[in-house]
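Protocol step 4 of 6: structure prediction from sequence.
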Amino acid sequence: MATLIASDPSPTATPNFAGMTRQEMADALVSIGVAADKARMRADQLWRWVYHYGARDFAPMSNIAKDLRARLGQAAALTRPDIVDRQISRDGTRKWLVRFAPGVEGEMVFIPGVGRAGALCVSSQVGCTLNCTFCHTGTQKLVRNLTAAEIVAQVMIARDDLNEWPTLERPLNDGDRVLTNIVFMGMGEPLYNLDEVAKAIDIISDGDGIAISRRRITVSTAGVAPRIPELGDRTGAMLAISLHATNDALRNELVPLNKKYPLEALFAAIRAYPGLSNAKRVTFEYVMLKGVNDTLAEAKALVRLLAGVPAKINLIPFNPWPGSPYECSDWETIEAFAAVLNKAGYASPIRTPRGRDILAACGQLRSESVKIRASARALAAE
């Protein structure tokens, strides 16, 4: 079962403060000899350096005593996971392939012009168990859950690359930010790793650090119904549902998880999500598959299904991949589908495909990197 997959990476003797919670920082400080009654204060100072300034070295931490900085430099670390590959699309989308541990590699994507300024799509697992038939990412086996530190590291890597960290000489005003939104829409099912996702959101949203508001953090689920209200209680994040069909028969085919949590159970959980209102709407993601789920009758059924739920619908043109049994709906069909939703009062933007040229679009993550590495292994064997 996916819920039993371990999140623990290989243990290390050197504590890495990049990715820790405040309590973990305090505990690590005690482990290297800092007095317990001073550890919390020192952890607060480190927190600011690590998550506000993005520090990668203890030496410049001017408000921490030199002897402690020296001790930290010898006994602790401020490291990021290795970047295996970095690509930039013609449209400005950026994709990184990150090695979290030997044999544990995943992808993350930054999309400019989404949200207030730009959104980072992070992964919560390496691989996936859901086997959604339209999603290339879902064809890859689950390796393991990512830890909170590994999820936070994705945000830190993006801020490194975007030169998003402020300095003592150059404060970063809120209006200057390039990365303003986080979406858990990368590899994996976040609600099968909820403990680590919730811990990561606590770190990312902390006002003394990275300070991305919980209202600008969206968690997308394929429909793990029992954990949806819990997600809201624990994180206060925005909710997105990977829907794609309006009846159980079709959704069973497209999203096999629906066999376990059918639409009736899913929508009961959605309606129980804390704080739902017109100011905090659920986002429903609906991939447009030619001749499968794109008729006007389906659009009207979607309006009926969403009755009473504060919602907006993202219509996603299908991103093709080799061997896929589906095609993208014609543009005129997508526009007609959107018109039905708009007439019913639902915002229904058609998501412009981004990063297709580097396989960074929805449902494409890591597929090309897996193929490349497989080819390289075959060549080496020869």
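Step 5 (inspection) to follow. The chain has two domains: 14-75, 82-378.
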